[in-house]
Each structure stands twice: as structure tokens, then as C-alpha cells.
Specification:
The complex is a heterodimer of chains A (414) and B (233).
Chain A: H1 4-16, H2 18-57, E1 59-65, E2 83-84, H3 85-94, E3 99-115, E4 118-127, H4 131-134, E5 138-142, H5 147-151, E6 156-160, H6 161-168, E7 177-180, E8 183-192, H7 197-200, E9 202-206, H8 207-213, E10 219-220, E11 222-227, H9 233-254, E12 265-270, H10 272-313, H11 315-323, H12 328-361, H13 377-404, H14 407-411
Parallel strand pairs in A: 4-9, 6-8
Antiparallel strand pairs in A: 1-11, 1-12, 2-10, 3-4, 3-7, 3-11, 5-8, 6-9, 7-8
Chain B: E1 2-13, E2 16-28, E3 33-37, H1 44-51, E4 59-64, E5 67-68, H2 74-84, E6 85-88, H3 100-111, H4 115-128, H5 144-157, E7 162-166, H6 174-189, E8 193-197, H7 201-204, E9 209-214, E10 217-223
The chains are: A alpha+beta (414), B alpha/beta (233).
């Protein structure tokens, strides 16, 4: 392998057969190049899609409470379990690492809301800033409830588009006062909800404000959490399931509820949205892997084909070399060493060229659906070696056979 | 130098079996220049291929320079070919992408001679065949006679015991043929053993001994009065 004479002979052969060398190299280099670019863009699209849908992809854990149906530790059934701010704080601290967005809610159904002469009954929910992201609500104008609204118990409201249409009749509602049960609230924003009109017939006010004005003390009705995105769906399911179970157990313990009481504390986790996104990403990945593997196979076949032709073309030369005293293994070695050298060199060239293109062009084509197109260097390198091995193998078989042919057969004039 | 006893060879093609050599016996001494003659199908090329270890006999004895050539594996055959034999073919069989010099140094490469020495020795043999100034030309840039002379230089390069020439003038015109024969006679004069397969009588007359083959048997083996090729050039 490290015989300098052998290398000299090989370089000589390669440089004297420039066209053949060039074509072999070109097919290998272009195969690797296409693969690198393809994998790069698939990664880019994957990143893009992930970031586009990440907010919806998180899975939602909803907690609410009801009346106990079973007696437990001397307590009678029929007790209403009331969650408090403390419960929410405790859980959000305990699962801080897994939680992405969190909110507790205190809502009043059918609150009387009025602006000037227009009146209607709407749901009014006390919520936290994160609620906007959990609901995927988009702000049409103004802003959502923020942390300082909560700390200062401000009397501000974010109203749904439908509510705005009902009460304001086309007037700009921002900074106008509406009344809820006769109390004045300043409108700070209008939101649109992908859930449609039903979801837009409500108003959000700061949680603390709602607890105060509705005399709820530190009671809360619901808690909502979203769990951070994982690498794949199965992991996400496992994570949110285990968290949901843990939260349920925790709350039952705190409120002295029988572990098998299903109606006093309820924890649900919704994976519907997450499932869709994960399957979309999975599909994109598998499509590109399919195309990528197809490209590699085409490359392997191409290299193999070229090697077959090269050996065929050199049969006579092999015969001459054998008549001059070449050992069969030196002939096989020569052909394989040549093949490995050319595929390796061309493969690395294609790799560098592809990576360079991604590096240069990548940032310019970035859009909502393509982000950070890049290639796992290890995968690319593995592919190069795969092609090299394929080239060597594809060269070995015909070379071995050619080296076995009696020189007299190889030399026979056709 | 060469001893052959009762050599048999058949070729099998499907169900047909063709008995090409039917018991050949002959000896060649050091320094002889022998021509093997016969019509096509007489088995002369087969005999030469067996002598050149390019092909194997079915039966019989072949001793080359006191070494029995029998049941050779590829490795030993390659070594013997490199050490004992030099080949000259009808169609030259030069490697077309290598220069004359590189073609000549090829046997030395397989002998394991270092590059510098290889080039020097190859150059020496090219000079010997009168092609020193053509050393860097490709075979495609040479005439038929020049190609054959490069091939002769190549056959000589590893300093073999025996030169085997299969119709060395078959692809050449008469004038060039005589020039090539003159070269071969010159090499023989220096003491090299040479076997030439030919079907041309004038070429055979330029050797020292003619072996006539017919249907796989030697029908005649007699010395001849050598005609010097230089007289015709």
C-alpha cells in the first residue's frame, strides 16, 4: 500500500489516462455533491418546518378539578376540590425543565360586558401572559396581558375579534373602556384565535385582577401546561404522559383525594397537534432519506459500472503485464488502489464542494420553511467511505477475474 | 536450455475435443536460433505458448534451464516468466498510454528494480535497437517496425534466458521484416537463445534450425544454412 514505486506507477497511469480518470472522478464527485446538497436542504426544511410548527407541536396538559366521589382518610365524598395559586406555583417549579408555557386560569361564564349602549354576555377569563401562546392566539392590534398587568392587578382586557365586532361596530377599541359587571376595564388589545368565532367571543383579563374582582381569593379553576418539543414523537408521548401522571398524583396527595378517584382531579394531555407535526417531520425525513439512499445506491452502481468498464478495457494490458511477470495480486492491487484513490479524492472534492455551496448559498435562500441548511459531517464522510468501499469492491471482482485469466486469452487479438 | 518430452495438449470446446499437440519431443541448446514452422492449425503457436508458460500442457515434461516447469501456481509462473522469458508478439502488445521508454522498463518494474536504474537500463536497450531518440514517444507515434523494435527491447530488458517470438514479422512489410530479423540475428550472435514461430520461409531461412510441425507432430527438425538478413536490407 505504501510502496512508493506502486504509487508512481498509479499516478503515471492516472495522468496518462486523463479522460478516464476525470470521468470516474466526476461521477463520484457529483454523486457525493448531490447527496450533500440534498441532505443539507432536507435538514434545512426539517429545521424550518420544526420552527414553523413548534408552537403548535407542543402538547398540552390540562388540569381541572371537580367533586370527590370516594371517601378517603375519613373525609366524605362530595367535597369540591379547589385548586389554589400555591398548587400552580409548586407544579410549575417542580417541572420547570419540561414546561414550555404555563398558565393558570380563573374564568367567569356569561359575564355581562358592555360598551356604550351595546351589551352582551361573554366569557371572561383571568389568564397569564403565556396563555396567548398556549391558545395560539394572534394579536390583531394592541397587546396581550403581560406580567406587570398581573403584578399591579390592572383592570385591562384583551377582547376577541367577535366581541369587538359585537360591541364596537367598527370603532377602534384600543384604550376605550368597557364594563364587565359594571366595572371599567381598559381594552389593550384585540386577538384572533385559530379556534374560530367561538373562541373570539371572550375577553382575557389578568389572572390576579379576575381573582380580585370576582372575589375568588387565590382560587384557580384550571392549569394549562405545554411540554417542550422532543426529538421524536414517542419521546414526547412518554414525557408528557409521565408528567401528567405525576401532576395528578401530586394534586391528589395535596388535597387528600383517593388515588382512584377519577372525577375530583382530572389531568388530560392532548397529543393531537403534536402527533400531526411529528408525523409531518417524520415524513419529510423519510422522504429525504429515501432519496438520499437512492442517490448513494445510484452512485455505487455508477462507480461499480465504471470499474467494470475500466477493467474490461484494460484486459489486454493486464495480459501484457502478466506476460512481463506481474503477479496476479499485484494487478488486483493496482486496480483497487487506483479505484480507491480516485473515488476517495473525487468524493472528498464533491464533499467539500457541496459543503461550500451550502455554506455560501444557504443563508441566502433561508425562508420560513428552510432554516440553517447543513449536513451532518459524519454522515457525509460515511457516504464517501461507502462509495470508496463500493468502488474497491466493484473493482475487485472484475480485476480478480481478469488477473486470473491466462495471459494468452487476454492477449488474443479480437 | 529447453528440454521437451512427449508434450500433449488438447482444447475442449463444448463436446468437441481438439488434440493440438500429440507428443512433441525436442531440445534447444544455449545460443540456438530456432524457427518453428507449420501451417495454421499445426500447433506451433500452442507450443510457443506452453514454452512461454502462458498456457499449460496436459501431459509431458518441460525443463527450462534445468528447472522443471510443472504444476506452476500463478505466483511462480509470473516469477519464471519475468526471469527466464522475453516475449515478442505479432501485434507488438505495447501498452499504448506508456512511452517507449516506460514500455521497455515495465519488466524491470515487476522485477523490483528501482526507478532510476530501470530508466537507465531501459534506455540502454532502446539504444541497442536504435530507438534512443524515440524514447519519449507513445506507441501510436511509431511505425510498425519501430513498435516491434520497442517490443524487442522490452523482451530483452529483464535479460531473460530465452526470447520467444510469435510471428514477429507477421504484421510488417518485407523490408521492415528483414530489419527486425537482422536485429534478432544480432541478439542471437551475442549468445541469446531465441525461438521464432513463423510461416514465412524466407524468415525461417534466417534462423539456424527449422522445426517443422504438422498436425501436432514434428515432421522435420534440421539445421539450415543461415541467411544473414543484412544481405537483403
Amino acid at each position: 500500500m505504501f510502496d512508493i514505486e506502486r504509487w508512481q506507477e498509479i499516478f503515471e497511469t492516472l495522468s496518462k489516462n486523463k479522460l478516464r480518470t476525470f470521468l470516474t472522478g466526476l461521477s463520484v464527485a457529483s454523486g457525493i455533491f448531490i447527496l450533500v446538497v440534498l441532505l443539507g436542504f432536507s435538514k434545512g426544511i426539517e429545521n424550518g418546518v420544526k420552527s414553523q410548527f413548534e408552537q403548535d407541536a407542543t402538547n398540552l396538559i390540562t388540569v381541572w378539578t371537580g367533586v370527590t366521589t370516594k371517601g378517603y382518610k375519613g373525609l366524605n365524598p362530595g367535597r369540591y376540590i379547589q385548586m389554589k395559586n400555591d398548587n400552580f406555583e409548586m407544579i410549575s417549579q417542580k417541572y420547570e425543565d419540561n414546561i414550555e408555557y404555563k398558565t393558570s386560569l380563573y374564568a367567569i361564564w356569561g359575564a355581562e360586558v358592555a360598551y356604550k349602549n351595546e351589551t352582551g354576555n361573554y366569557r371572561v377569563r383571568g389568564a397569564m401572559p403565556d396563555h396567548q401562546f398556549i391558545e395560539n392566539a394572534e394579536i390583531e392590534s394592541g397587546r396581550f396581558v403581560n406580567q406587570s398587568d398581573l403584578s399591579d392587578n390592572r383592570k385591562v382586557a384583551v377582547i376577541g375579534r367577535k366581541l369587538k365586532q359585537d360591541l364596537f361596530k367598527g370603532e377602534d377599541p384600543i384604550d376605550k373602556n368597557i364594563s364587565i359587571f359594571g366595572m371599567n376595564f381598559k381594552v389593550i388589545g384585540v386577538f384572533v384565535d385559530p379556534g374560530g368565532e367561538r373562541e373570539e367571543q371572550q375577553a382575557y383579563i389578568p389572572l390576579t385582577t379576575s381573582q380580585k374582582v370576582f372575589n375568588a381569593g387565590d382560587n384557580i379553576r384550571n392549569m394549562l401546561f405545554t411540554v417542550k418539543m422532543s426529538d421524536n414523537f414517542d419521546e414526547a408521548v412518554a414525557l408528557s404522559q409521565s408528567m401528567a401522571n405525576a401532576v395528578e398524583t401530586e394534586l391528589k396527595l395535596m388535597h387528600t383525594v383517593a388515588p382512584d378517584d377519577t372525577s375530583a382531579v382530572r389531568v388530560f394531555n392532548t397529543l393531537e397537534e403534536a402527533k400531526k407535526i411529528y408525523s409531518l417531520i417524520g415524513m419529510i425525513q423519510s422522504v429525504f432519506w429515501f432519496v438520499g439512499i437512492g442517490t448513494i445506491i445510484a452512485g455505487i452502481v455508477g462507480v461499480g459500472n465504471i470499474m467494470l468498464i475500466i477493467v474490461k478495457e484494460r484486459t489486454k494490458e493486464i495480459g501484457i503485464r502478466k506476460a512481463l511477470g506481474a503477479l496476479p495480486m499485484s494487478i488486483v492491487g493496482m486496480i483497487i488502489q487506483e479505484a480507491v484513490f480516485v473515488t476517495m479524492f473525487a468524493g472528498l472534492f464533491g464533499l467539500i464542494f457541496g459543503l461550500g455551496l451550502l455554506e455560501l448559498v444557504g443563508p441566502q435562500i433561508e425562508s420560513d420553511f428552510i432554516k440553517y441548511p447543513q449536513v451532518d459531517f459524519n454522515i457525509a464522510l460515511t457516504t464517501v467511505f461507502l462509495l470508496v468501499i463500493a468502488g474497491a469492491l466493484a473493482g475487485f471482482i472484475p480485476a480478480y477475474r481478469a488477473a486470473k485469466i491466462k495471459p494468452i486469452v487476454a492477449l488474443r487479438d479480437e | 536450455m529447453i528440454q521437451i518430452k512427449d508434450l500433449h495438449k488438447s482444447y475442449h470446446m463444448g463436446s468437441n475435443s481438439l488434440h493440438v499437440l500429440k507428443g512433441i519431443n525436442f531440445d534447444v541448446k544455449q545460443g540456438e536460433l530456432v524457427s518453428i514452422m507449420g501451417s495454421s492449425g499445426s500447433g506451433k503457436s500452442t507450443l510457443l505458448n506452453i514454452l512461454g508458460m502462458l498456457d499449460e500442457a496436459d501431459q509431458g515434461q518441460y525443463i527450462l534451464d534445468n528447472v522443471p516447469i510443472k504444476n506452476l501456481n500463478e505466483k511462480i509462473a509470473a516469477k519464471y516468466r519475468n526471469e527466464f522469458l522475453g516475449f515478442i508478439f505479432q501485434s507488438f502488445n505495447l501498452i499504448n498510454y506508456k512511452s517507449a521508454l516506460d514500455n521497455v522498463s515495465m519488466p524491470l518494474y515487476y522485477k523490483g528494480v528501482k526507478r532510476k536504474e530501470r530508466t537507465e537500463r531501459a534506455m540502454h536497450y532502446l539504444e541497442k535497437v536504435g530507438l534512443a531518440q524515440w524514447s519519449h514517444h507513445l506507441p501510436s507515434e511509431l511505425s510498425g517496425g519501430q513498435k516491434q523494435r520497442v517490443a524487442i527491447a522490452r523482451a530483452l530488458a529483464s535479460d531473460p534466458k530465452v526470447l520467444l517470438a510469435d510471428e514477429p514479422t507477421g504484421a510488417l512489410d518485407t523490408k521492415t521484416s528483414y530489419e527486425v530479423m537482422e536485429l534478432i540475428q544480432g541478439i542471437n550472435d551475442e549468445g541469446k537463445t531465441i525461438l521464432v514461430v513463423t510461416h514465412e520461409h524466407d524468415i525461417a531461412q534466417m534462423t539456424k534450425r527449422i522445426v517443422n510441425l504438422k498436425d501436432g507432430l514434428i515432421i522435420d527438425d534440421s539445421p539450415v544454412e543461415q541467411v544473414r538478413a543484412s544481405l537483403h536490407v
